[in-house]
Amino acid sequence: MKSFTFVFVVWAVVLSACGSDVGESAIDAQVNEAVKGFQESRPCGDGLVSANDGEVCDDGNEHNGDGCDENCEIEEGFECRGMSPSVCDSY
Ligand SMILES: [Ca+2]
Ligand SMILES: [Ca+2]
Questions:
Q1: How far is ligand 1, taken at its centre, from the CA of residue 12, in Å?
Q2: Which of 14-18, 51-55, 60-64 has the lowest mean pLDDT?
């Protein structure tokens, strides 16, 4: 669902750029801005533990069941170490 939102954002930026008189580099810049904004709004999954955003771990994805869940919280039965990214092992 989140990756769908991402694709939609990029698509919307490209579509709006195509309607105006801008060069390809300008479109690239807008896409990069959209990617940047998307990553900043979803710090969980970027592979960096940011305690300010309530992350306890960040293994670089938003998958559950690998020790660090989609909310960047350590899952039951796992322990995580490292900050960029976290490495989680079951115990
Ligand atoms: Ca993070
Ligand atoms: Ca994970």
A1: 25
A2: 14-18
Between the CA of 51 and the centroid of ligand 2 the distance, in Å, is: 16
Ligand 1 mean position, distance from CA 49 (Å): 4
What would the pLDDT profile of 29-46 be if each residue is shown by its tens digit?
999 988 777 655 669 999
Q: Which candidate, 84, 59, 89, places its Cα nearest to that of 73?
A: 59
- C-alpha 68/C-alpha 89 separation (Å) is 10
Q: Which residues contact 67 (CB under 8 A, 6 or more apart)?
A: 57, 59, 74, 75, 78, 79, 80, 86, 88, 89, 90
Decide: 74 and 80 in contact? Cβ < 8 Å.
Answer: yes
